[in-house]
Design goal:
alpha/beta, 4 strands, 5 helices, about 45% helix
Length: about 150
């Protein structure tokens, strides 16, 4: 199997990071595990180091920045991103995600799981979509109203 680098962007994940690293280490092919401490104010870095992860710091807050920083340090031929706070990983998530790549069946894999919408989804995306949907319904009515009123103006 090709070398796998697992990058874990982490911001204040001390409660879960150790369990995530333990689960990743249960795989049959040991990965390079890089935890990117993304401006944590808790003991995320300390806990990750205690579990044997390579810890790097990203001083620009944001998951995308942390992912990019992790890429700078990754040595593997296959890069895998894993959230630092999930508890849903199967016994060998690394093999499950990388075997389609190493077997030549895929160039990219992505896992999925069910959860409630995140902050961005709930606070921004859904309200914007509802507004756009409302405007889509309202626009034809406004157009008709404009046409009717323009006859009297």
């Amino acid at each position: 199997m090709k070398n796998v680098s697992v990058i874990i962007p982490a911001h204040n994940e001390e409660e879960r990071i150790g369990e995530v690293i333990d689960r990743l280490n249960q795989t049959k092919n040991k990965p390079e595990i890089i935890v990117v401490n993304n401006c944590s104010t808790d003991r995320t870095e300390e806990f990750a180091k205690a579990k044997g992860a390579n810890v790097v710091r990203c001083d620009t807050r944001g998951k995308g920045h942390a992912m990019e920083e992790g890429l700078k340090h990754a040595q593997g031929n296959i890069i895998m991103f894993v959230d630092g706070d999930l508890e849903i990983y199967n016994d060998d998530i690394i093999s499950a995600m990388t075997e389609p790549i190493t077997n030549g069946e895929a160039e990219f894999t992505k896992s999925a799981y069910e959860r409630e919408g995140g902050r961005v989804t709930e606070l921004v995306a859904k309200p914007l979509l509802e507004l756009l949907f409302f405007l889509e319904l309202l626009l034809p009515l406004l157009l008709v109203l404009f046409i009717l009123l323009s006859k009297y103006i």
